[in-house]
Automatic annotation (TrEMBL):
General (non sugar-specific) component of the phosphoenolpyruvate-dependent sugar phosphotransferase system (sugar PTS). This major carbohydrate active-transport system catalyzes the phosphorylation of incoming sugar substrates concomitantly with their translocation across the cell membrane. Enzyme I transfers the phosphoryl group from phosphoenolpyruvate (PEP) to the phosphoryl carrier protein (HPr). It comes from the Bacteria. SUPFAM superfamilies: Enzyme I of the PEP:sugar phosphotransferase system HPr-binding (sub)domain (SSF47831), Phosphoenolpyruvate/pyruvate domain (SSF51621), Phosphohistidine domain (SSF52009). Residues 6-123 form the Phosphotransferase system enzyme I N-terminal domain. It is an enzyme of class 2 (transferase). This is Phosphoenolpyruvate-protein phosphotransferase. Residues 251-524 form the PEP-utilising enzyme C-terminal domain. It comes from Streptomyces prasinosporus. InterPro entries: PEP-util_enz_mobile_dom, PEP-utilizing_PTS_enzyme, PEP_util_AS, PEP_util_C, PEP_util_CS, Phosphohistidine_dom_sf, PTS_EI, PTS_EI-like. It catalyses: L-histidyl-[protein] + phosphoenolpyruvate = N(pros)-phospho-L-histidyl-[protein] + pyruvate. Residues 151-221 form the PEP-utilising enzyme mobile domain. Its cofactor is Mg(2+). It is found in: Cytoplasm. Belongs to the PEP-utilizing enzyme family.
Amino acid sequence: METTLRGVGVSHGVAIGEVRHMGTAVLEPPAKQIPAEEAEREQQRARQAVDAVAADLTARGNLAGGEAQAVLEAQALMAQDPELMADVDRRVAVGSSAERAVYDAFAAYRELLANAGEYLAGRVADLDDVRNRIVARLLGVPMPGVPDSDEPYVLVARDLAPADTALLDPTLVLGFVTEEGGPTSHSAILARALGVPAVVALPGAGEIAEGTLIAVDGSSGEVFVNPTEERRAALEAAAAERKAALAAATGPGATADGHKVPLLANIGGPADVAAAIEAGAEGVGLFRTEFLFLDDSKNAPSEEKQVEAYRQVLEAFPEGRVVVRVLDAGADKPLDFLTPGDEPNPALGVRGLRTLLDHPEVLRTQLTALAKAAEGLPVHLEVMAPMVADRADAKAFADACREAGLRAKYGAMVEIPSAALRARSVLREVEFLSLGTNDLAQYTFAADRQVGAVSRLQDPWQPALLDLVALSAEAARAEGKSCGVCGEAASDPLLACVLTGLGVTSLSMGAASIPYVRASLAKFTLAQCERAAAAARAADSADEARNAAQAVLSGE
Ligand code: PEP
Ligand code: MG
């Protein structure tokens, strides 16, 4: 019998196939004593396994490139942490087998992390993944992770470790479903980069039996278990219709009556440029430069290294707009040499622009590198700061840009409600706004973007979030300046129409979403988008807002 489960759709498209669960079994090796004369050999075995796992993670990173690479390299470093290794040696010296020593040493470290504040607690899943890989290797059993299968399947997991998302083979993995994770978690962002339909935060996903046929609608967030023939036919027809609409819509982003809404790409570095161009991006709306800084958590990249990376991106869009965000370190993206390690609540602490104002030399190097990279190119360079709270923040950033002699437009990201509420005041100092709806939702609803349990509040259809978008867009219009959206909200084709109706002037998203948003915008006039926006804002919940906008746009 067909049953319907509802989660959060984070990557468009329909996938119909059999369930394969991720191998997540925690392998607990037996606690047997080894004779003292075997200790040295066991220590060596442990070290070899650790090195092999670290090398494998690094190799997966090299293969994946882009944002995934930084995450995998961080895991490789975790595996080789000298203190952890010393603990493993100590445990073997008093009689543990290599696998048991690794298991226990990681357990002790895990406890430390879990109690060490929000960000580090969030790394526990990564640490468990590393431990499982090392223990599996020592025991000579298959690695936990993506199942071996020659047939295409729908992958179901509690959550996906970065090591797995990075290497999912889109020809075998039809789509994926996870029990945890929010719509703006970094694993959801990776799923979109991969271009496979995905639903996250789906309660009960783990209980769907292996081999069950399911249909995943990555747009609506619905998962149909044992779908009927009619359901499958309807979903396939809708997917085919969407594909045809995608193929028909080409060119710059615009509504049916020609109101232009540039469609830009979110990128993490030069590796993401090809996909952006392929999707017809009209430029880059968010270049997340922090990925350049993750290679080495102890030092900032040199000015030369930065110039090279920026230049590669700028050259790819000779006539287009490229919006570069200066380093957004802290909270979910800490850097050892910049982020204080003792903050009780890092998301509310020194992060984003606050970090850069505490370390002006890092900001100066980045702005100088950008100025050099843009020299002699006809590109429209724009530079923006993350986590701007008020006019003083905006002024400090604009002053730093001027001092670095940067010939670019200076902008502020609106990610904190105060910046939206006082957008006109912020706009006295900068030339454009860009709404980071992921953080704006996090701070408006006091809902951590990493936590699946509060994903209801991370839903960008929440009318309170739409009100803040409207306030910012109205302020920009009054000042004759632009106000784009670069948070994940821009990648929802229906919401993109509502954002346009609210007065947003450009939409920036992962490249895979651009064709969907382009096709959706092309179906409606600006007046229809404005009516849908008014209906959504009049609602009292995210679901009601979505339904109200849908009703207006489908002419119900
Ligand atoms: C946002 O917060 O919406 C945003 C675009 O920035 P990031 O997701 O990198 O924090
Ligand atoms: Mg942000």
